[in-house]
Amino acid sequence: MKANVIVSAFLALSVSTPTFAKEPIEATAVTQWEVDFAPESCGIKRHFQLGEGIVSFELRQFTPHDGFDLTVFTNTLKRTGASPEIRFGEHDDTIRHDSFFKLLSGEWSGIKLMLPGNYFGDGAQKRRVLSISKSFEQDMALPLDSLDLAHKALTDCMDDLVASWGLDPAGQRTLSKPVAVPELPWGWMSDALRATHSERRKAREDQVRILLIVGSNGRASSCKMLGAISTSKSAIKACDGIMRQAEFEPALDATGKPVRSFFLATGAAYVTRSTVSF
């Protein structure tokens, strides 16, 4: 089901302290893993039963070197507004995510946050359970059995995505050096994404990703803003600015030769709505 989802960013919120259950309730998987071969990204999804409600879990990746977008929706639990705390498997530490996005779609409410690409490790954990605390009125534990198989399908999907950019997936995996930006800060990035005063009044700030194909000469040959605003006027304006200003250090293959590759830039832009499936 496609649904319009209102998105807002919450950074280091100050909230009243809610009451939580002492231990997370473990949900029961009610579907198998589903791989989503989207035009601009790859995702794996699964639904769980938690009490009388459903929890929708999704991991989404936009490039092989990118981290994951973790999205969790529920149709029965209310959000607390507190920053989510995440723990996976046998990790000793629970990580608090002060930067996250709050989602709402009809009776469904959820959160979205970013996880590093190596967060789930090599799948060797004996107990593959993801615990999510503080964000909802009930803490939850989602059993992610067969995650290694789902992750393999995600990798295959990502190879197909890289090939659709006109790049060799095997060659991209063996790069000795990825595309890099010579200097920070990226003035061209902030210039490209700067919103006008009227745009700020009409929209909300959200994270965006910009995919650039960079030639062996270090110049971008194509630019695309990924996601719901990819065809908007602001996306076209941003890409025009990046193509004119951005300079890169090209990727190097296994022998040290400059080769064509990709670069994923992330930043903040003003958008009105995002679309999510669950």
Rg (C-alpha, Å): 20 Å
Stated plainly, the CATH topology of the largest domain is called Immunoglobulin-like
Count, helices? 5
Strand content range: 35-45%
- Which oligomeric form is depicted? single chain
Through-space gap between termini: 6 Å
- Can you write the helix and strand succession as a string? EEEEEEEEEEEEEHHHHEEHEEEE
Plain-language structure description:
By secondary structure, the chain is of the alpha+beta class. The protein folds into two domains: 2-162, Immunoglobulin-like; 166-277. It has helices spanning 147-164, 169-173, 187-193, 197-202, 233-245; strands spanning 2-11, 25-26, 28-29, 34-37, 42-50, 53-61, 68-74, 85-88, 95-96, 99-105, 108-115, 129-133, 140-143, 204-214, 220-226, 251-252, 258-259, 261-271, 274-277. The strands form four sheets. Strands 1, 3, 4, 5, 6, 7, 10, 11 and 19 form a nine-stranded antiparallel β-sheet that branches. A five-stranded mixed β-sheet has the order 2-13-12-8-9, with no helix packed on it. A three-stranded antiparallel β-sheet has the order 15-14-18. The protein is elongated, with a radius of gyration of 20 Å. The chain starts with a strand and ends with a strand. 31% of the residues are buried.
List the helices and strands and how they pair.
Elements: E1 2-11, E2 25-26, E3 28-29, E4 34-37, E5 42-50, E6 53-61, E7 68-74, E8 85-88, E9 95-96, E10 99-105, E11 108-115, E12 129-133, E13 140-143, H1 147-164, H2 169-173, H3 187-193, H4 197-202, E14 204-214, E15 220-226, H5 233-245, E16 251-252, E17 258-259, E18 261-271, E19 274-277
Parallel strand pairs: 2-13
Antiparallel strand pairs: 1-10, 1-19, 3-5, 4-5, 5-6, 6-7, 7-11, 8-9, 8-12, 10-11, 12-13, 14-15, 14-18, 16-17
